[in-house]
Amino acid sequence: MGDSDYDAQKGAARANRAFYAAFEELDIGAMTALWHDDDGVQCIHPGSEVLIGRRRVIGSWAAIFEHTDSIRFELSDLQIQVRGDTAWATMVERIRASSGGEDIRSDMAATNAFVRTDGGWKLVLHHASPVQRRFFPEGL
């Protein structure tokens, strides 16, 4: 991997970490700044329809943050790929959250897609879905 490839992968990794930091801090300003300023952005929250367009995507984060007391992520199986000006991160999110006095624990398979802009790597897609089974047992 050349220096520019390494720098691109590090930049995408920083953007991915910033996404989870904004999420854990329930910071709508930071979350908004991470998303590409484009009406083609998309988000699929667990159990949700596909949200298309910046207004709907940011609105969904505002609603989640408003109804969440706290949330913490432990990421596993993290992989980051970069191809030109596009990058994507795949991982398992181990989530601990509380909302309305209820403690929630869940595992989600997630994908975050980014595009490189003059302002750095910006999110164009977040998709998370529940992990209900594994295709391969540990060790395969």
Chain-wise SSE layout:
Blueprint (H helix, E strand, L loop, with lengths): L2 H23 L2 H7 L7 E3 L6 E2 L1 H13 L3 E14 L2 E14 L2 E16 L2 E11 L10
Parallel strand pairs: 1-6
Antiparallel strand pairs: 1-2, 3-4, 4-5, 5-6
Protein name: SnoaL-like domain protein
Pfam families: SnoaL_3
Organism: Engelhardtia mirabilis
Structure report:
Helix content is 31%, strand content 43%. With 140 residues, it is α+β, with helices and mostly antiparallel strands. The chain has one domain (3-130): Nuclear Transport Factor 2, Chain: A (Roll), CATH 3.10.450.50. Strands 2-1-6-5-4-3 form a six-stranded mixed sheet. The model has no long low-confidence stretch (mean pLDDT 93).
Characterize this entry briefly.
With 140 residues, the chain is α+β, with helices and mostly antiparallel strands. It has helices spanning 3-25, 28-34, 54-66; strands at 42-44, 51-52, 70-83, 86-99, 102-117, 120-130.
* CATH fold-type name: Nuclear Transport Factor 2, Chain: A
CATH class: Alpha Beta
On the 0-100 scale, what is the average pLDDT?
93
Number of helices: 3
Q: What is the domain tally?
A: 1
The biggest sheet amounts to: 6 strands, mixed
The CATH architecture can be given as Roll
Helix content: 25-40%
- How many β-strands, per DSSP? 6
How are the strands of the biggest sheet laid out side by side?
A: 2-1-6-5-4-3
Stretches with pLDDT under 50, minimum 5 residues: none
